[in-house]
Amino acid sequence: MPLYQYTAKTWESKTARGQRQAADERQLALRLREEGQFLLRCSEVGGRGAQAHRLKTNELASFCRELGTMLASASPWFAPSTSSWGKTLPRLRRLYAQIYEGLRGANLSARLESQEPAFPKLMIGIFKAGDTNGALDQAAKKAALHYEKEYKMQSKIKSAMTYPIILLGVSLTVMLLIFTLILPNF
Fold first, then answer.
1. Which DSSP symbol is given to 103?
2. pLDDT tens, 84-140?
3. Residue 15 contacts residue 7 (beta carbons within 8 Å)
4. 117: Cβ contacts below 8 Å, ≥ 6 apart
5. Is the distance from CB of 60 to CB of 147 less than 8 angstroms?
6. What's phi and psi for 103, nearest 5 deg?
7. How do residues 19-47 score in pLDDT, each as one tens digit?
8. What is the DSSP letter of 184?
């Protein structure tokens, strides 16, 4: 059972902090409620370094695209020997390994939900719909398409904002030089 660090409020509105083992966050909240405390925040202590970081948009698109392709071809997905995920960053490899390990007896959307800081709620919802419809490969491809479009949009916004930011910096520098060096001489 994982160890959680939590912050809770008591009936007297006092803040209580501590650590406790529980199966999941919901179990922790139930145990604290039995003791007259209400859970405000909790985080798992140690062992979840890959989850601490939210995946970038291009990583989400790549993950969904590869997953959709593997599901459509009915290949043994997440298997390290057949996947190109073994060539990714170490934190992503750990994340994918945690998902693979937890898939025994659980559906994919439940595993992604347990890794929630890494995967956005929209993606989890798309995979839940795919699980219930039985069209997980199509759901993965649609999620990949969405995150690819989002990545392109973010890239366009960044590139469009680069020139105005540089121009603003140069003009502020010129104005500062004019007011500090040239105008005091007159």
1. T
2. 555 666 777 777 777 777 666 568 888 888 777 788 889 999 999 998 888 888 999
3. yes
4. 51, 52, 53, 54
5. yes
6. -75, -15
7. 888 888 889 999 999 999 999 998 887 64
8. G
* Distance of alpha carbon 56 from alpha carbon 58, whole angstroms: 6
Least confident of 45-49, 118-122, 146-150, 151-155: 45-49
Residues constituting the chain:
186
Per DSSP, the chain holds a count of helices (H) and strands (E) of 6, 3
Q: Which two tokens stand for residue 175?
A: 């104005």
Selection from 78, 65, 83, 5 nearest residue 41 by Cα: 5
Tokens (6 digits) for 72: 């459509």
Q: What average pLDDT does the chain have?
A: 83
H/E run at residue 8: strand 3-10
Looking up tokens 């290949």 gives: 75
In whole angstroms, what is the distance from residue 22 CA to residue 28 CA? 5
Q: Is the confidence at residue 176, as pLDDT, over 90? A: yes
Residue 123 to residue 119: CA distance in whole angstroms: 7
CB of 1 closer than 8 Å to CB of 31: no
Q: What does pTM read for this prediction?
A: 0.62
Angle at which helices 136-177 and 121-133 cross, to 10°: 170
